[in-house]
Automatic annotation (TrEMBL), chain B:
Gene Ontology CC terms: cytoplasmic side of plasma membrane; cytosol
Domain AAA: 3-159
GO biological process, alphabetically ordered: division septum assembly; negative regulation of cell division
Residues that hold ATP according to the record: K11, G12, G13, V14, G15, K16, T17, T18
Name of the protein in question: Septum site-determining protein MinD
GO MF term list: ATP binding; ATP hydrolysis activity
Subunit: Interacts with MinC and FtsZ.
Keywords on record: ATP-binding, Cell cycle, Cell division, Nucleotide-binding, Septation
Family named by the database record: Belongs to the ParA family. MinD subfamily.
This protein's record includes keyword RNA-binding: no
Alphabetized Pfam families for the sequence: AAA_31
PANTHER family named among the record's database cross-references: SEPTUM SITE-DETERMINING PROTEIN MIND HOMOLOG, CHLOROPLASTIC, SEPTUM SITE-DETERMINING PROTEIN MIND HOMOLOG, CHLOROPLASTIC-RELATED
């Protein structure tokens, strides 16, 4: 952000807007977690351990979400498999190498990778 | 063996987290392998200031409870290869940080990292005590304002009596003063205490003076440590402070009002 920024195309939001966007995302995420039971991290870890027995997998390739819909809850397990392993375990590997540190992206694309809705 | 540094102040809102983010990024950008830990259990915020809030899966408390391994909880910074973040938990359990648990994690981190920065919560409750207990060095973040200076004095007393080094009779925790939100124009008008006034009261060595700067808010808006902003006076001041911490002798800047022309005014404003 300097005097030269006037010369560049105005592609980025003002920082205050960026702050608002970041807060909205993180709070939406945290509010949904506020009522989540404490076993989620352990559950995530155990699922990870089982999968890791078959496929080499990094910790951040797996997300566990619990969402509430009125009287029911949905437990969502999202696993990004490496390309080579994905064809064996999860069918098409089209999106298996998608960046996974984005919880919303994972939630918005229902037809990707290995997913279990319990 | 890594060194444990606590960022503490007693008072809230003086810039501990901003300083933790800036200092850890400054050390890492000079090639020192550094980790910054959020000790504010229940009120996680370091992740937002560091811009990694969407990458948190496991946290400090998971590691303490054995629910995750340390390396699963450490978040690698995307900008600096030597920088890692250990976020805190959102749990409301006040007893989540046990002394044994914290010690175990810090011992493991000491083997992997050169510097371990502990971002203390405000107050003198458990989280703040745990953050300072194992410290080798302490950076006291203080604003030139009465309540902040008084609370800094209190926390110095706690460091000198209730840290591990004090309890075990080892060499005392090395103390450094970091004066932040300093406004030289108000100092000149006599509306704000001078650096020397604060130094006289607290009587610990001065590590840095960070000028009040708009760039600090802008940096937090976008989740970037302000030290990574090359145009920011606060960033410059933090870079100097990191240099002094590493033993360099640097003159203190930003302690007098800038005399500047219209053009410079414009430059600074847009920075």
């Amino acid at each position: 952000m300097n005097i030269l920024s006037f010369l560049r195309p105005k592609s980025t939001l003002p920082t205050a807007e960026q702050a608002k966007e970041r807060l909205k995302i993180v709070l939406a995420h945290e509010r949904s977690y506020a009522s989540a039971p404490d076993y989620l991290p352990r559950l995530q870890n155990e699922i990870l351990q089982v999968i890791a027995r078959y496929v080499e997998l990094e910790q951040d390739k797996l997300t566990v979400k619990l969402e509430n819909f009125g009287s029911t809850s949905r437990l969502e397990v999202n696993i990004d498999l490496p390309k080579t392993a994905a064809s064996v375990v999860a069918g098409p590997a089209s999106q298996a190498d998608r960046k996974s540190d984005d919880p919303d992206a994972a939630a918005d694309e229902p037809a990707t990778d290995a997913r279990a809705v319990l | 063996m890594g060194k444990v540094i606590v960022m503490t102040s007693g008072k809230g809102g003086v810039g501990k987290t901003t300083t933790s983010a800036a200092f850890s990024a400054g050390l890492a950008s000079r090639g020192h392998k550094t980790v910054v830990i959020d000790f504010d259990v229940g009120l996680r915020n370091l992740d937002l200031i560091m811009g990694c809030e969407r990458r948190v899966v496991f946290d400090f408390v998971h590691v303490i409870n054995g629910d995750a391994r340390l390396n699963q909880a450490l978040i690698r910074d995307k900008r600096l290869e030597h920088l890692y973040i250990l976020p805190t938990s959102q749990t409301r359990d006040k007893d989540a940080l046990t002394r044994e648990g914290v010690e175990r994690v810090l011992t493991e981190l000491r083997e992997q990292f050169e510097y371990i920065i502990c971002d203390s919560p405000a107050g003198i409750e458990r989280g703040a005590l745990m953050a300072l207990y194992f410290a080798d060095e302490a950076i006291i973040v203080t604003n030139p304002e009465v309540s902040s200076v008084r609370d800094s004095d209190r926390i110095l007393g706690v460091l000198q009596s209730r840290s591990r080094r004090a309890e075990e009779g080892l060499d005392p925790v090395r103390e450094h003063l970091l004066l932040s939100r300093y406004d030289p124009e108000r100092v000149e008008r006599g509306e704000m205490m001078k650096v020397d006034d604060v130094l006289e009261i607290l009587a610990i060595p001065l590590l840095g003076v960070i000028p009040e700067s708009r760039s600090v808010l802008k940096a937090s808006n976008v989740g970037t440590p302000v030290i990574l902003d090359p145009q920011s006076a606060a960033g410059d001041a933090y870079r100097d402070a990191v240099g002094r911490f590493l033993g360099e002798s640097l003159p203190f800047r930003f302690m007098r009002p800038e005399r500047r022309g219209l053009f410079q005014r414009f430059l600074r404003r847009s920075a």
